Amino acid sequence: MKLPSLLLLTALFRLARSQSFIDAISAFPQLSSFASFLNNNTTYAATLLNVTRSQTILVPSNSAFTEYRNVTGHSIESLGPDTVQRILQYHTLNATLKSGDLAGGAAAQRGVVVGTQLVDKRYNDRGKWGNSNIKSPGQVVYISPASAGKTRRSLELATRQGSATTTVGTGAGSSTTMNIIDGVWDGGIFQIVDHFLTLPTNCTDTMDDIGLKYLTTALNVVNETDEWNSFQGVTCLAPTTDIAQGTDASSLTTVLSSHTIRGPQYTTVMQDGQTFLSDANTTITVKIEKDGTVWFNDAKVVRGNVVANNGVIHVLDKHLDLDLQANE
Q1: What's the whole-model pTM score?
Q2: How many C-alpha atoms does 287 have within 13 Å on its Cβ side?
Q3: How many beta carbons lie within 10 A of that of residue 259, not counting itself?
Q4: The 3-state secondary structure of 18-51, one letter per residue
Q5: Domain ranges of the chain
Q6: What are phi and psi of 5, to 5 degrees?
Q7: Cβ(320)–Cβ(239) under 8 Å?
Q8: How many Å apart are CA 112 and CA 140, to the nearest integer?
Q9: Which fold has domain 3-193?
Q10: 171 and 201 Cβ atoms separated by less than 8 Å
């Protein structure tokens, strides 16, 4: 096949996929703003829907457009094409995600982490795939459990009735409600979100955003802020207790290192009894209770899978047991 013919077929394929998606969301009045946005910005539509594999699009509702304008004083388009494109890429999941995928098993207790099309290093500096327990070339979102106390059938029924919701965790510690509708188009599935997703920021800015200022202060004390933010792929175990209190600089460095694991490690796919080696050469053992509660050694995860541009943060109810023996 000649190259011009191939390019023409590719263009026609993208056009057909775009039209299928726009037609599908146009059936939902609460998505009319996004349908108009794509019709008026065909380049964005082509970029958003330019792959052949199945996707799930998290479609911002009309209220997302209104809320953004009310908060910022301007439209989402005013951010400029580069930033808007990155946001749309973050709204595009590289998987087919339906209500049934959120019911039963670990997903019902611990949620799911899903990769997106966002690969720009400013927002996705997570290092090589092999360093993480979620194999995704793009940045991820964390979708909280939607089916606690529900069977797969009851969740699917709630979806058909329009009453099934969950939460999508994104950058800067932000989250938004996802209305599970299992909308169908030629390229996959779409769900509805109430806000535009927030692009990820670095590790320490994210800690500040979720109320862990004391931890970023501790990093500043030992001059490790830049180092933590420059890690290409890291898991930060962030205790809610002040680990710097009564600790000298040398000991504080060790304490911080004992709460650091290389590679983004997400709790959604961890196994009970699994171990990780910290930067302080200590062993961190995972415990998962029957209800899905996750522990690292003797510290409980009170907020897991907070997205940072270079990894993930798990907030703990206290600091890890510092009497752990270093591995030889």
Answers
A1: 0.90
A2: 7
A3: 25
A4: HHHHHHHHCCCHHHHHHHHHHHHCHHHHHHHCCC
A5: 3-193, 203-316
A6: -65, -40
A7: yes
A8: 10
A9: FAS1 domain (2.30.180)
A10: yes
Chain length of the chain? 328
Query: For residue 304, what are its two tokens?
Result: 């897991």
Sheet holding 175-185, edge to edge: 92-93, 55-60, 188-193, 175-185, 165-169, 140-143, 112-115
The conformation of residue 323, written as its DSSP 8-state character, comes to T
Q: CA nearest 146: which of 31, 265, 64, 268?
A: 268
Signed CA dihedral, 50, 54, 55, 56: sign only: positive
Residue type, 243: I
Mean pLDDT by groups of 10 residues along the chain of 328 residues = 46 57 96 95 78 87 98 96 96 92 79 95 88 93 73 59 80 96 94 98 97 93 92 95 74 93 96 96 96 95 97 96 55
Radius of gyration of the chain (CA): 21
Task: Please state, in angstroms and rounded to a whole number, the distance separating the CA atoms of residues 315 and 321.
Answer: 15
10 Å CB burial of residue 8 (0-12, 13-18, 19+) is exposed
Give the pairing type, strands 311-316 and 299-308.
Answer: antiparallel
On the question of a common fold for 3-193 and 203-316, the answer reads yes
Query: What CATH topology corresponds to 203-316?
Result: FAS1 domain (2.30.180)
Torsion sign, CA atoms 166, 170, 176, 181: negative
